[in-house]
Task: structure prediction
Amino acid sequence: MPLDLPAVSPRVAFTHVEPVLRLYTEAMLGQCLTLKATGALPAGLQQMGRELPTSDGRTIFVPEYVSDFATARENFAAYKVAIVHQIGFYECGTFGFTLAACAQRLPELRQRLQTLEPLPAAPDAFSAFFGVFPQADLARSLFALLEDARIDAAMLRHYKGLRHDVRMLMAHSLAQRPAWHGLTLRQALLEGLLQRTLGQEMHEAIPRFLRPLLRHLWQRLTPLHAPEATVYDTAAALLECYGLITQVPIHALASAASDILESLTALMEELPDDADALALADMFRQVGAEADHMPSLPESGEPGTGVEPVPYRGEVKPEFVQQKMRLQELAEALHKLEHGLSPLSPEALQELLKHQDISIKSLQEGDLTATSGLFVSNLEGREGIVLEATEQQAALRQALAGLQAEMQARYGALPTQSQAFLYDEWDHLSGAYHRDWCRLTETVLEDGGVAFVEDTRQRHAALFAQVSRQFQLLKPDTFTPLKRLVDGEDIDLDSAIEAFVDRRASQSLPDKVYRRRQRRERSVAALFLLDMSASTDDVIQEPDDTTSTALPASPPARAYDFSGFVQDELYATLPPRPSVAVPPKRRIIDVEKEALVLMADALEGLGDAYAAYGFSGYGRDQVECFVVKEFREHYDARVQGRIAAMKPQRSTRMGPAIRHAIHKFARQDARVKLLMLLSDGYPQDYDYGTDRKSKEYGIQDTAMALHEARRHGLQTFCVTVDPAGHDYLRAMCPDQRYLVLEDMASLPKELPKIYRSLTT
Result:
């Protein structure tokens, strides 16, 4: 794919290079991690106004734009290096860290870890590891610094084509580092260690008294450059660096010089045969108790436990990533069980529930032959546990909910309801399904406030009242009379008269002369699936657009100046045109949202169960489903805020979204189940089939997904505003099961009509 970088401005925006960077990410890692801008960061990873690369276990986040360099090529290279550095954490096994392996490889850590018996398993390994250090924040900062150095070394070793770009970023980052004189002593040591990872050599700018300490810290970096270095080598380097740095006073000469001398002298005793160290000790002895504060390291009231991050390296929270990956693992296992896919082996189930506080119904070992469940030996010390399929699901749900609650408490407002689902995709060329081909991520939309809903109600007040009255007529009578019954609560007068006539004519008495009232209720569940692809950002043509009062004709180049002045003497007598507030142009997504608000208000009065979701995505591994309202949720301010938060996203992969809707209907017991799909175009995505120019693959997969929905007892109906919709909707939908709107603005008016006709 050719890269078309802007020729005028060197600034490179993520939206411009996103397709290329996605392919680049997939090629580097061999699997497709989601790639997003930092504006989409979850609450647990937000960076206090900074835009730094990071990752959450499934997604790599990069800045909205890069403009640090003089050319667009160099700024694009900064994106590449930042992404590869984030990929390095996955390739180099950072998030596979476990305390058991760490304790086995680092004997000096075992004593500290004995207080944690039994050792916490992933996803709590990093949290527990940093927690064994008295100064956990310092340990966390050191780990990030050292692990970044290991990742950079691996990146330079494996990707020779990136070496020039990596070294360019290192040199640029080194030139941007803060001045030494503004740092506390500990910060200066951390800064010196970080600068060494960027290629810094010992030079005169480094304060003289820091050099011996830095040399000893720099030696701890050497094992991290080895090809066989692992995350546990980083942990070992952390132990050594932490031991050195914590012996240095936090504040730079904030106490008496004699105290500093005492601390440094004790440190020097651990560094024998070092000429610089001895020279430093002699220098302090000469200074003595009357030494003045060193001007390069002023007093600070803040403990120096961290340094400014390197922009291309970003910031990664390994604890968060481990928990997010664990969350995803549990969700995928639960999804497979719920869809009757391959059951979990006893070993896999035991590993999933390891160190989880799960209440499991225990069956006796002798009952194993009478159950189809799995027999799990020694699960958390409990011998002989047999888990039925439903019990497996319950155990996984409990583990999932517990981990979500823990992350919520630790990191604040997270998308804890986000889950990933795997769905098949139909390949019409081979006549078979690609199993578990698409990964759909379900995310609850943020609250955008109720202003949009209130504005919509005011804008369409007359239409809201009309639809409300029409839907009230759909309400069934409370009771429906049943006549001609053998027994009942009352005499059916019509049947009794007929019986009397029949008796006189045939001498026989019919027995079906009773009636009773039977309660009648609507049994309808509807799901609205709204297209949120990028094309829904298009502005619609309003049918009632009116222009302002026309002015006298003017020469083509001398139009009336709307600021109240004229550019031609012919218009000198005209008064200034009054300013008129021009309402913002409505987009396709806005009309979809307005129609949804109208339907929600009407259905609340009618009492039908309903749900609403948006869908978009980019590639089979990044299909997105946005929760607006679940069936079980009330239409409250929170749901109204989600409607307001709906906005255009990326591509239109309909098949997985429809199959996810089928999954949502599984627990609905309604007599009528209606799936309504609202879109502005045909299904398309960059990898929807082998030929990007062909629509056929996506159309056939969507047609098969709709067929699957009908096979599950769902009624389906598709609405589109694409003028070419007839061409592909005929192939996707049965006759009378789709509608092509000529005017998108009419959707709020037409949707209730469609709903009434389908549910009565």
